[in-house]
Amino acid sequence: MSERVRFQADANLNAVIIKGTLRRQPLVDMRTAEVAGLAGVPDPEVLARTAQAARVLVSHDFHTLPGHFADFLASGQHSPGVLLLHQTLPVAQAIAALLLVWDASDPAEWRDRLTYLPL
User: Fold this and answer.
1) Looking at the domain assignment, is residue 1 inside a domain?
2) What DSSP string describes 55-85?
3) Residue 55's domain spans which residues?
4) How confident is the model at residue 2 (pLDDT cuts 50, 70, 90)?
């Protein structure tokens, strides 16, 4: 595997998941919404900025993000991918799922895909 998946956390992603992922594996490249300036930014713009940064978006937004993602792809744009974690998923399972994606996959596997974790 030549590259690792680089993550972009959505503004609604539980901060404990971000901290726990980085605590378990400090080499994971996971940028927070605050660092990326995404807090309060509408989903279509989040998808565009995340694509520009070549980062897989990680979110809890099951309600609106899938529709915006479909529209984004339908407009001819490409995405590094979106990973959705249900808010009721235990934090330890969410961390394990993200670490599995990071450790066992290539960024190209997620291109233009919306995936619900855990797999």
Assistant:
1) no
2) -EEEE--TTTHHHHHHHHHHTT---S-EEEE
3) 6-117
4) low
